[in-house]
Amino acid sequence: MRLLAKGAVALTAVAVLAGCSAGSGSDASGKTTLDWWVINPSSPSAAEAQDKVIADFEAANPDITIKKTNRATDAHKDALRTAIGTAAAPDIYDYWAGPGLGGELVKNGASADLTAQYTEYKWPERFTEPALGPVTQYGGYHGVPWKLNGEALFYNKTLFQEAGITELPKTLDELNDAAAKLKDAGITPIQFGGTVNWHVMRLLDTFLEGYCGSETFDKLVTNQANWGEEECVTESFTNLQKWATDYFNTGFIGINNDESSSLFFNGKAAMALEGDWFNAQIRDKAPNAEDFGVFPLPTGTGRMYGFEQAMYITKDSEDAAAAAKFLDFFTSTPIQQETLGKFSTQSVNKEVKSAGTDELSKSWNAIFEDAKGLYSNNDQNLTQSQTTEYWRIQNLVATGGLDPADAGAEFQKFLDSSK
Fold first, then answer.
1. How far does Cα 370 stand from its chain's mean position?
2. Is the dihedral of CA 237, 242, 245, 250 positive or negative?
């Protein structure tokens, strides 16, 4: 009875979604309606920018109508997982490009390989190298990049000077040395909020990329390498424990990222591992924005740490040509230039340059331009259950509850049991 009940609920959900998508396809007049599912915009100005893109596209293409549906993050995920493979599926869907999110739907056959469209519209020449990495990781081209956020180390210039740090770290060894100098000078080297697991995760991800290298990092997060057999995994967890014990703000495990960020804004911590969105927070919350700089995470691989959102065309869309036409418009240089700052501070389009003239903006321009690919946050690379276990082990190591030498094997045991 329970199985039947669950089946009935699922069918009802599909029917409701199908009703929502009834306008897609071509009508009797030959006009095409595209269903576009998008995660809720981050601000009113971003929502207005989306609507203007639609209006401008429809004005230039009167034979195509865009039907946009915005949903909150979890509702968006649930709707996609229910609708994919049915008549209720949208023509275009927005999703994070990491293997554990966008990749989940690619592996399940939901996404169309857009190799022909990339050739037709010359998209490989349009997008930056970091932006192309996530959409080419499965072979062919899955998804069209539209939003890319980078993460790096912000630092307090005065505190670095007080600690005698005259050059920005370019390797993990130099970063470790800088943290030690800051501690010796009586300065908290870096701030983290431990109640939100993803905050500390950023540092562990960085150590894994640096100590393991890009190839092994990618194999680890895609279950092609054994976490318990790679010495670099132990090295990464060992360094995480060292930093958590000696270099994090006291009591980090009991505060969130907003609380810990205030330490940085007010000169009580020397570094913050944050994204390009942190520029605006510094301007809004720090007494003097000129006191701060930013430098790329010194992993030695050349890849930028960050995450991407892509627009995917569903494999079964009957209007893939019209969908590609819209995405070409959406990612074109004029539209990306017009919307810059509404969706992200940097564009996936290599022809679009930030208009910011302050030091932080210029530094981010260089970080994006110099990046030789992208490695993503592991809560996007891993499935939800894997991420939860990754965080549990991370926190145990950081607080001294698990020997770093056992952490990789512990995580591998979970991965093996959940296959």
1. 18
2. negative
Q: Which domain holds residue 231?
A: 151-305+377-417
User: Are residues 106 and 189 both part of a single domain?
Assistant: no
Taking Cα atoms as reference points, which of 126, 266, 243 lies closest to residue 175? 243
Tens digit of each residue's pLDDT (9 = 90 or more) over 95-119: 999 888 899 899 999 999 999 999 9
pTM here is: 0.80
| Residues contacting 61, CB < 8 A, separation 6+ | 325, 326, 329
**Same structural domain for residues 190 and 272?**
yes
189 CB-near residues (< 8 Å, 6+ apart): 178, 179, 182, 183, 243, 247, 248, 269, 270, 271
Q: How far apart are CA 379 and CA 391, in angstroms?
A: 9
Q: Are residues 394 and 261 in the same domain?
A: yes
Phi, psi of 418 (to 5 degrees): -100, 10
Give the number of domains in the chain. Answer: 2
Q: Are residues 130 and 212 in the same domain?
A: no
Beta strands in 254-396 (DSSP E): 271-275, 292-295, 304-313, 374-375
- Report the candidate in 116, 114, 268 with the shortest Cα–Cα distance to residue 189: 268
pLDDT at 272: 98
| Average confidence (pLDDT) over 224-252 | 98
> Are 203 and 276 in the same domain?
yes
**Which residues have CB under 8 Å from 26's CB, separation 6+?**
32, 33, 318, 319
Q: Are residues 43 and 126 in the same domain?
A: yes
For residue 60, give the CATH number of its domain. Answer: 3.40.190.10
Euclidean distance between CA atoms 195 and 204, whole angstroms: 16
